[in-house]
Amino acid sequence: MGDNVTLWDILLYGHPVCVTWKQEVEGSVFHLACVFFILGYMGGSGFFGLLYVYIFLGLGFLCSSVWAWLDACAADVFSWNFTLLVICVVQIIHLAYQLRSVTFSQDFQELYGTLFQPLGISLTTFKKIVHCCDSEVVTLEQDHCYAMECKTPIEKLSLLLSGRIRVTVDGEFLHYIYPYQFLDSPEWDSLRPSEEGTFQVTLTAETDCRYVAWRRKKLYLLFAKNRYVSKLFSLLIGNDIAQKLYSLNDKVFARDGFRYDIRLPSFYHVAVTDTGKSQSQGTPNISLSQNLIN
User: Fold this and answer.
1) With a threshold of 0.70, does the pTM exceed it?
2) Distance from C-alpha of 239 to C-alpha of 234, rounded to nearest angstrom
């Protein structure tokens, strides 16, 4: 019968069974350690979440070490808890060093707090985005042009940090660009990575402006390496284009009175083509203009 003893039996019955239980409770230090463990395991993710977890676990292991040394008088229990305490301290130092190394200039700190932090973007991810633009902020003086109609190539994506940009076409005002809006989101969205093009509008600084710019090739390389950043920029650019469309005060009028936004080349070409067909057939083209206006 003894030869048929399984490992499960050894684990369950291979040690003395507690006949009597201690009547007195453990000291307050032991219970304080349990409270710290409960708080520690309620932590979240990210840098600050990990700091929260390791700080409270470290406090819990510290209290357990004190309890094992003074009350339990168990060298092995003290050794294990002290070892785990040291590991937590090392992790806290490592995380604190990483947080300190992720520092930005005032412009990028404000950009993170305004645009990226509300979306839950971590500092490490934002650091990759900042590194992609070489942590450089470009200054554009008043009345200087960021882009000129049919002349400036589309080779970067820029985000305005301060100032105001006026957008015009053929000398006609379209709309303004304000801080934390992209300067060239429609142009960026209209081209594939392998395509080239030029601006269909003129962007002029009405005040002294500061902006950050990402080169197309470098940004697409970051997208290829990090799909999360690619989806993030797709969301930001799409939202920015929607805001521009809704904020247009004036539209460009075609000769026949139809209205469309010339900053969207795909709509522009469709409008011109459909307009030409409608004129040749003697019927007005109102469906596209109504959709764009709505």
Assistant:
1) no
2) 9
